[in-house]
Amino acid sequence: MNVTTPRFNQTLPPFPPLPKPPYPVLLTWLILGVTLAILSALLSGLLILVILRSPALRRGAGAIIAFSLTINAVLSGILQPVYFLQVFFVQTDRPLNLHCGVYMLLRLSFIYTEYWTSLVLALNRLVAIAVPHMYRRLIRPPVLVVAMGVSVTVPLLVNMPTLYNTIYLSGRFPPLMACTMKPLNDTLMIINATVGTYFPITSLGVIYVFIAGYVLLRKVTDAGRRMARRVAVAKMLFISYLIYVVCFLPVTILATFYPFILFRSPQMMMWMVMIQLVGFAAAPVIYLVMNEEYRNCISVLCGKVRTAPEVSATISYSNTRFATTKKMTKAVDSNFDD
């Protein structure tokens, strides 16, 4: 067989596949992956419940966050554990009977939907900081529905060819021998990766850097807690972007430009998937750790705060205790949300 074919259209990798990982490594990887996935899904579900129970939290960007957490919960709670289980059983010579085309279409589409939903959330925050006086008129429920519809439709359309083996060949290929995709076309593969990953993540970086810089550098007439809040929001945006760059870009870059490295080693693919899972699991943690409203709501929900009516009355997704009574200032300093 020819091993000097083009980068994506190759029948064999330029180097022989590495041997299967030892059973203890597989078992450790499976336990860590499934445990992290379940914890991420549970935390995402808890935050979704908190948002749905609070009228203030489910307005504006809160609806986008709830949708993003729903995608996250499905990925972490169902699709990622299935991937971990199938790899484990395949590598131990007990393959699961999965329809690889359908499974990979769902998995890739949900991953890309998460990226695009994060981009919609970033655009929501950009509108709130750039034109706060028009936020209520621009960010209306129909607009949110259309935006979230686009974040679902684009990934489905860009990944639909995987179901018919036109961009990828769906099946079980060495060395992993689990459901995966073998690239068939250089140009279509790059378009798929660009639309699904590179464009939303690059756009996220531009938007988050702009917002963070605007929040930190804009002139402030009042000091103290409001400035501290703006710094905290800027840190949250910056951390969110770093998570995307560190956890999601490496595997896409390897799969797009250096597939012979990624597909040569089962352990390389396994731990790249683990890094992706860490990225999904980090999203609800960031919302919880860096947003006091969610922590207070969870405390009320769990019965840890006895004065629930008083706490609920003070909670809003905008963290209004740091805002003034002026509508414009409230729109800018309310975590970029309504």
Give a quick set of tags describing it.
338 residues; mainly alpha; Rhopdopsin 7-helix transmembrane proteins; two-stranded antiparallel sheet; 12 helices; 3% strand; disordered C terminus
- What is the CATH topology assignment? Rhopdopsin 7-helix transmembrane proteins
Largest sheet: 2 strands, antiparallel
Strand content: under 5%
Order of helices and strands: HHHHHEEHHHHHHH
CATH architectural designation: Up-down Bundle
Strand order of the main beta sheet, please? 1-2
The CATH homology group name: Rhodopsin 7-helix transmembrane proteins
Measure the end-to-end span. 61 Å
- How many beta-strand elements? 2
Low-confidence stretches: 1-13, 305-338
What percent of the residues sit in helical stretches (DSSP H or I)? 55-70%
Mean pLDDT: 75
Concise structural overview:
With 338 residues, the chain is mostly helical.
Describe the structure.
It is a single chain. With 338 residues, the chain is mainly alpha-helical. 70% of the residues lie in helices and 3% in strands. The chain has a single domain (23-332), classed as Rhodopsin 7-helix transmembrane proteins (Rhopdopsin 7-helix transmembrane proteins), CATH 1.20.1070. The protein has 12 helices and 2 strands; from the N terminus they run αααααββααααααα. A two-stranded antiparallel ribbon has the order 1-2. A hairpin with a 6-residue loop joins strand 1 and strand 2 (179-183). Helix 1 (23-53) packs antiparallel against helix 2. The relative contact order is 0.15. Mean pLDDT is 75; it is low at 1-13 and 305-338.
